[in-house]
Amino acid sequence: xxxxxxxxxxxxxxxxxSQIARITAQQFANQQPTLxxxxxxxxxxxxxxxxxxxxxxxxxxxxxxxxxSWNPVMRLCADVADLEISxxxxxxxxxxxxxxxxxxxxxxxxxxxxxxxxxxxxxSLQEARLLGFIPxxxxxxxxxxxxxxxxxxxxxxxxxxxxxxxxxxxIFETGWQTIESLWNVPELRPAYxxxxxxxxxxxxLNQPEAVTRRAKLIDWGIQILNQPxxxxxxxxxxxxxxxxIRLQLHxxxxxxxxxxxxxxxxxxxxxxVFLEAQARKSDNYIQLQFRGAxxxxxxxxxxxxxxxxxxxxxx
Length: 315
What we know:
Pfam families: DUF1822. This is DUF1822 family protein. By secondary structure, the protein is an alpha+beta fold. The protein has two domains: 2-158, no CATH class; 161-314, Immunoglobulin-like (Sandwich). It is built from eight helices and 17 strands. The strands form four sheets. A six-stranded mixed β-sheet has the order 1-7-6-4-3-2. A five-stranded mixed β-sheet has the order 9-17-16-13-14. Strand 11 and strand 12 form a beta hairpin. Helix 2 packs antiparallel against helix 3. The chain is elongated and about 70 Å long. Mean pLDDT is 86; it is low at 1-6 and 193-208.
């Protein structure tokens, strides 16, 4: 127990709670039907406010008004303490008291969150301590010993994520192009004869109309074999709110085959290998396919020898 406290003390940051924060939290609490609900809303509001102050100090843009925790109906109906971070998503800011060694993470906050930051309060509510961060939870009771330091939060928020759910709405990040636009460039069009644009679009990928796909050139700076490879991402919505994801890595231009040994790897949100494929001597392309839930995060790494490039995605 002492060891846990020491580790948290080492990485925690203490911030003052402003008077306007306490007044706002009291106003929100006064709108609740019971004392228990009022206390929940008070602490949730203070946690969000303090985290908002911290992120503003770190020059990370936020939007309090867009957060569910600032919506009176959501505050009444659910146990939410989210903070909208511009162009990133919602960070859940969970409060704990001094004597707690676990943090309550309500199931209604397990989705549509980019992570969880735990904020500790004493009885005076004059200051708060940002204890640590975790990117994903699957349990209602989170041991504080599992928290990562705040530096991990900043790194996490600074990571550019490709938002696949926005692809269904026709919104695409810079660098992700249609397959046709890339393969209309003569020096990029694959040399192997059967793989025309129409062949890939309709035959090799066997696409229904709901499929959305984009491609991106992977260039290591000094191009491997003087030619970049092409990463293709195809997503298809499924009836159970899951998304089917297919990844393909293709040779381009005058390179008929991928460089032998080039790897295509899917990493889960904790950085562990989930799926992996490796090109053999005569592979035109390699592919991986899997399914994911809304807000689930994963990374795709393309590597050869000691060189790699990683793209980060959120569903």
